[in-house]
Task: inverse folding
């Protein structure tokens, strides 16, 4: 029987575990999706590891823009690893049971990594702003010390900022149902099972999301407005195109990332039930960016492609 109740009435929770049912409406054949999900996960881990290795080994890539890309790769691998092993275990081994602490820990990790990814996008936008609008001062502004401070700030900001989300979820009273129509522990999916008022959780998540990622997005937009204003003042069309081309990869990624965040937030506000599309969108938002980010940069950044070729040639020579 799926519903498991604590014997002791003194326990804070009556439900002792949750059951992750998987993708709603397609439980019988959802295991077929394990193949593309597994491939996306392997791509995310492999491509991001390749980027990290290339940046570490190629001295020409050891500059701020690629340092931020390397940090983004670490965050992406953390985000993908937070959800995919459990999802694949559900699809392959029917391992649907997840303990309460594990579930709340997953809620924390997902929010933390997504927030850090947003913060790194902001750092990368600032890097491009300084490089284009203040090129002569770039080396004195964007230093290794600044990169370290910015990274630590993003880690601590998001690590502390999202604590209220799982803490409030853990304080709810789960007294009857424990089946979650989802592949992962989302805050909305979990707290929907609570027997008491879950509005504080919903309000807290939305407020923190708009304060955190909303402020990041606002500053990113401001950076690109200033970049566009600076580029339009250039007399040379070629120089303007070259300046904007250095931002193209970053723009593609942030448009995709924040578009999905906005869609998920609107779904949250509308109190949409856990139907297939919102759940699938939520899962894909946590796995596609880790797989997409390195591919976009690899395809659109000449220096990074050259670094891959150098490393590949070095590996063939060593053999």
Result:
């Amino acid at each position: 029987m799926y519903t498991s109740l604590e014997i002791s009435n003194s326990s804070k929770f009556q439900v002792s575990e949750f059951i992750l049912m998987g993708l709603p409406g397609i439980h019988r054949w959802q295991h077929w999706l394990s193949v593309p999900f597994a491939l996306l996960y392997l791509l995310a881990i492999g491509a991001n590891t390749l980027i990290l290795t290339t940046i570490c080994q190629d001295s020409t890539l050891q500059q701020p823009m690629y340092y931020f890309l390397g940090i983004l790769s670490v965050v992406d691998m953390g985000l993908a690893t937070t959800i995919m092993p459990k999802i694949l275990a559900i699809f392959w081994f029917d391992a649907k049971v997840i303990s309460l602490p594990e579930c709340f820990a997953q809620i924390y990790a997902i929010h933390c990594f997504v927030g850090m990814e947003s913060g790194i996008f902001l750092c990368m936008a600032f890097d491009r702003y300084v490089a284009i609008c203040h090129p002569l001062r770039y080396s004195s502004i964007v230093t290794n010390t600044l990169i370290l401070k910015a990274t630590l700030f993003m880690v601590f900001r998001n690590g502390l900022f999202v604590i209220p989300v799982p803490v409030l979820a853990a304080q709810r009273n789960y007294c009857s149902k424990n089946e979650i129509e989802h592949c992962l522990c989302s805050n909305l999916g979990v707290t929907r099972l609570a027997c008491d008022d879950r509005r504080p959780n919903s309000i807290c998540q939305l407020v923190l999301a708009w304060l955190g990622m909303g402020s990041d997005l606002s500053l990113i937009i401001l950076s690109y407005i200033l970049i566009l204003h600076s580029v339009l003042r250039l007399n040379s069309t070629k120089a303007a195109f070259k300046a904007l081309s250095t931002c193209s990869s970053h723009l593609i990624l942030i448009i995709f990332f924040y578009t999905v965040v906005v869609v998920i937030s609107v779904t949250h506000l509308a109190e949409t039930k856990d139907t297939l599309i919102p759940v699938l969108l939520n899962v894909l938002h946590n796995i596609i960016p880790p797989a997409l980010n390195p591919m976009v940069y690899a395809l659109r950044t000449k220096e990074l492609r050259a670094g891959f070729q150098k490393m590949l040639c070095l590996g063939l020579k060593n053999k």
In short: The beta strands are 17-20, 97-99, 179-180. Residues 1-13 have pLDDT under 50 and may be disordered.
